[in-house]
Amino acid sequence: MPEKNDIAVEVKGLSKNYGDVRALKSIDLQIGAGEYFVLLGPSGGGKTTLLRLIGGFIRPTAGEIFLHSAEVSHLPPNGRPTSMVFQSFALFPHMNVQTNVGYGLRLRNMPKVEIRERVDAMLEMVGLTGYGERMPHELSGGQQQRVQLARSLVLEVKILLLDEPLAALDAKLRKEMCIELKRIQEKVGITFIHVTHNQEEAMTVADDLAIISGGKLLERGKARDLYENPIHRFTAEFIGENNVFDGHVTAVDGEGHVMVDLGYTNLTVHGRDQMPGVGDKVSISVRSELVQLVDGNAMAAQGQEILSGTHRETVYLGLTTSELVRLPNGQELLVRQLSDGSGGNGIKVDEAVQISWRTVDGRLHVS
Ligand code: ADP
Ligand code: MG
After folding, report:
1. Among 210, 250, 277, 367, whose Cα sits 20 to 30 Å from the Cα of 284?
2. What does the alpha-carbon distance between residue 49 and residue 215 come to, in Å, rounded to a whole number?
3. Domain check: are 248 and 197 in the same one?
C-alpha cells in the first residue's frame, strides 16, 4: 500500500511538440499515490500525449517527469513503475486468456507455477475466474477489456495508465465497467491515471480530475467542484449542461456583485476571488437544472435574474424534460426540470416566455 501523502507522479514544465504541433504546453501536475486520477478533455487536447510521456513511450520536448520521486525521463517504458492499458483491445489473438495475462511475467522468466498463481488471482480480481482457457474472440468486448486490465495489473506496477479504456464499449457496459474499475482500483490500491473525453465516465471513477484542452491543464479538482464551481468558461461548457452568457462588466459594487451587460439585457452575478474591472469581458454560466420557466409577466424578485425569450421546443427525456428557449440575440438556452407527469406545460412554439434563476446560482468567468 502506498504511503499517505506520497506523490506518485510529478511533472514540471512538461511540453511536447510534434513538428509544428504544440501538443502539450508546459504542464505542471502532481498526482497522489493511490489516487484514481482522471484526465478529462476534448479530442486533440493532449491527453494521450501526457499519458504516453508518463509511460515513457515518447520523449518530452521540455520539462521533467518524476515517478515516486525518481526522475525517469531517460528510462524506457519497462524501466518505469507503470503499465499502459490501451484505447483499443490489444490482446494476442492466438493466445488464450491465461497466456495473454501471463505474457509479461513470462518475459520476466518467472517460474511457471508462480505465473499460474498470479494469473488466477488476477482473473478473480477482474471477475473472470474460469475463463482462462478461452480465446479472445470467444469473449465479449467488456470481457476482453477485463483481460487487458488483468494483463497490466499482474505486473504489479505502482501506476496504471488507462487511455480511453472504455471507448469501445456500448453505453450500458461502459457504466458497469466504470464501477468495476473503481472497485478494482480500491482493492489493488495503486495509482490509476485514466484518460477520457466522457464526463460521466470521469465523474464515476475519479477521486480527482483535471481538465485538459489545447495542450493546457485548465483546472483540477473533485468532480463536485468542477461541476458546481467551474472556474473557466471552457470547463462550464464541457462539464454538465450549462447556459453561458458573454458580456462586459458595467459595475462592481462593494458587496461583490458584478453587473454584466449582455447587449440586450443586464445580469448580476456574484464575483469570486479574482474580481473583474469595469469594461472587462466576462461570461456567466448557469446550469440548465437551476433555471426555470416563469410567468411571462413576472418581475425579477430580489436575488433573482430574469430573461425574456421565445419558446422553441420541449424535449421529453423521461426522467427530465428540457425546454429550449431562444434569447433576443438568437442564442438558445436550456431549462431542464424533472418531468412532473402533468403531460406537458402547453406552451406553444414561438410563444413569449421568461426564464429565471437565483443570482447566487450564476458563475462568473473572467477571460
Ligand atoms: P487527445 O488524446 O487528447 O485526443 P493527443 O495527445 O492524441 O490528444 O493529441 C494532441 C495533439 O497532438 C493533437 O493536435 C494531435 O493531432 C497531435 N498529435 C498527436 N500525436 C501526434 C503525432 N504522432 N504526430 C503529429 N501530431 C500528433
Ligand atoms: Mg487520445
Report:
1. 210
2. 9
3. no
